[in-house]
Predict the structure.
Amino acid sequence: PELVFRLIPDWYQWRWLIVSEATGEVASAYWPGFALLLAPFSLIGAPWACNPLLASLSLVLMAKLATRLSGVPQASGWAMLFALGSPGFIGMAISYFSMTAHLFLNALFVWLLLERTPRRLFAAGLVGSFALVQSNPVPHILFALPWIASVARSPGGRRNLMTLAAGYAPLALLLGLGWWLFLREVQGKTPMAFYASDEDPLHRLGNLAWYLSLEFLKVFALWDWAIASRILEQVRLWALAVPGLPLLAIAGWWLARDVKEARLLALSLVCTLLGYLPVVFDQGSGWGARYVHPAWSALPVLASLAMVRAPSTAAGGADLRSYVVRVALLSLIFANALRLFQIHMFMRDQLSLRPPFEKGVRQIVFITNNPNNYAQDFLQNDPFLRAPVIFMMSRGMARDYEEIIKRRFPGARRTYDGSNGQVWRLE
């Protein structure tokens, strides 16, 4: 247990990871849905394959939605071209963020609700409940609001709403409420933490009120930082998509405004944009528009409706479809290549700041804390510490030697010592 503060950066504790000082157990503060999706891929040693697979399935769903909403088979090709030609979609698909899972589950939720049979309503609720617990419930709640309202207002709305709720309830309670109870157990009786114990109700109530007030001021605050974060996100939304894709989506919504499902899909995107408007969080290292991404499928689907419903020629006799397909193909090849190169350069530059170590050799790598170069992100270890190289946070060379090396690995020898950390080879 005393190694927890070496293996988990202080900045991560009580923000993203709940840590038990008594037992050494660590659990994510996020809800565990995405971790469950990653689990089988981690089991076979390929966690990197999870998001690309989900992105591929999302492509199929976007194609099916485009065809269903337009009634034209060619719409599926347009939707897939717009998605594949957008570096934000590709970049997020090769990350470990949960946004690709949100996008896939939200698109599947919509696909199931295109027909309001009891079986599909229950299945939509089940998919929606899994979307709720991916990391936090906000992305799915914002996306699903127009669709739930539509179910409630349709003929037989009360019965349909109850069927949908029955699909939501089991998994939402098991993984939502259950995870909250589990985190309280992991945390133990640590005072002034997220999940205070029940032994002192007044202390617990005071902690909760204080924490919620701080979170409210921090998250839902209409000040300059929130506005700047959202403006930057909109810039990324446009810059990492097929050129003009949001404009084409607006045109598709207008041309297909007689299709109820197209209007609901557009409303899902608008609800997501407006719902995150007062949120001050930036998107960290996400590629594309991270907080819009759960509803991003609306863009290529609506844009495809514009392409199949627009007149065959634009003003001046230029063929609109020919122009758009050329732009999308150029984006598919060159914009993706540029952004992937930028991602590679960014990652290479960051990883070069780590202390040099040998792969496959038993070593301890101490990382000097430096928030300016994301040094805390270098502490990425196998959850069960099975890898030969273990990364730890440095507390200064003298303390590192006395507390870790001399006490636990007296035979180790130092192979590197620099301002960014030290490397000890374990004999």
Notes: The chain has a mean pLDDT of 87. The two ends are 24 Å apart (CA to CA). Strands lie at 17-19, 26-28, 363-367, 389-393, 413-418, 421-425. The longest helix spans residues 320-351.
